[in-house]
Fold:
Amino acid sequence: MPIEFQDDSAGVSDAMGFATSAVACDIREKNTERLDLALVCSAAPCTGAGVFTRNDVKAAPVRVCREILDSGKPLHGFVANSGNANACTGDQGLVDAQAMSERAAQAAKLPHNSILVCSTGRIGRAMPMPRILAGIDQAAAALVATPAESRRAAEAILTSDTRPKTCTARFTWQGKKVTVAAMAKGAGMIQPNMATMLAFLCTDAAAPTALLREVITTATQRTFNAITVDGDMSTNDTVLVLANGASGVNLATAPAEVRALFAEAVEKVCAQLAEKIVGDGEKITKVVEILVRGAHNDESAERIARAIGNSLLVKSSWFGEDPNWGRILDAAGAARTGLVEEKLDLFYDDTSVLLHGMAQNQHLARWKEIVRQPRFRIALELRQGTGAYRLLASDLTDGYVNYNKSE
Structure:
């Protein structure tokens, strides 16, 4: 049962039974026709699960989403807006987030408390609710299950992103095709837990809530929580998965190998979306895969990888296309996990930089070629244990600084 994978797919409506719509509400209040609200609904009830930011400051939609999921009631979809995060907005923010959920359910003729709600954009601004509620009504009247409208929904959730992020995975069991389709947004504030990102996965398998929770939590930890652009954690990070059973495949009664295949499809989708988020980081020019192996344990490996990936000196050297491996070792040592210099091996792609702590300067020309590439790998072998971690990171550019002076 191989998994079929489609990159840059239509998005969530690839899963049977999910209809989408996207509208322009002028949430940014700039008198533009930019799409800024998406509605995704399933007529059939869904089970669902989510993973959310661990920031102490949580946006109102995060709180409302968690309350709806904790209620255990059947779900039917979600409404998501860009342009305003509805974060740090006090009690009124909670009222507004709940009103978005209720209005979406009412307008789509679905049960109360069955629509999840997400927001992304500026922090600390009141939601322009008259525009948003009118937009929800418009979106509910326009729900369709077409690739074109699904792509519009993926556009509506974008903020500083330069392009939509979608992908789809499928597999077949007993003649029935199961689809996991997804869309995401994210470009800045990219650092776990998760990022200033929203990710939505829809599947036409039937799945118990406990299974969805286990699968999406594991996949998030290995993908969305293993990326960094600027080292900042957002107030709104959300990953949601909804399962409506339209395919006729019930994972509760399917063999273990089918559930494992479903988990693999979910992780594959999340991994590709995570890659897209880093690749679309605000004004970046490089995506760098950091591999740390041979650490005392996985936690130590992660500390080292993050120390490297979030070092301003390291990130600046990547932007300057300078193979300054001294900065990498300095950052790794600053993680204070007990490195032994004489045991260290370091590689750019497959070209050695250090072997047992000794510089391999004869490869300097090749190092320079590698760091000129838009994507390359740094591998650090510690020879201290079996711990390992993989992190996707980016460079730091003057474009990022200039862009965020006004954002």
The CA atoms of residues 105 and 241 lie 18 Å apart. The chain has eleven helices and 15 strands. The longest helix spans residues 256-279.
